[in-house]
Amino acid sequence: MNALLLLKTAHVVSAAIIFGTGLGIAFFTWFGYRSAMREGAIGSLRTTLRLTVVADAWLTAPAVAFQAASGAVLMHMHGWPLASAWSTAVWSLFLFAGACWTPVLAMQVRLARAAQLAPSTVALPPGFHRMFRWWFALGVLAFAAAIAIIWLMVAKPLPVAGS
Fold first, then answer.
1. Which of 47, 68, 98, 161 is 20 to 30 A from 107, comparing alpha carbons?
2. What is the mean pLDDT of the chain?
3. What are the angstrom distances between the C-alpha of 74 and each of 19, 70, 152?
């Protein structure tokens, strides 16, 4: 297997990790939250939020860093200019997703801490619910940007020099 094919494969795998981890985190956290609100017990939500922080630290963050680095290297290997319409669209979406995801990371830590400190039989503090809504909204925006980036990676609908 040549270096280009190996790097392309690793780039796609890192995109899959970002996509899959993001979807999994959103799915389990949303349903853990809804369950905690219906049943009043927050034990599973505590665990889910703690593991969300771990998953983003161990899986998503390294994949995001690799995605940026490997994307830049692949563009260079293919001779694609950073100033092309395609490149500008991809990097703009990447930065937008990062601008949404960075506060999400901080919110996840605060949500996990608040859930950990709340007694199991007492409702979560009101600020928790507001922060959770922000966490969800920013996550949806970051995820939409990730989907758009994947589409641009596959379709390359904009002019790219050297393609």
1. 68
2. 91
3. 20, 6, 14
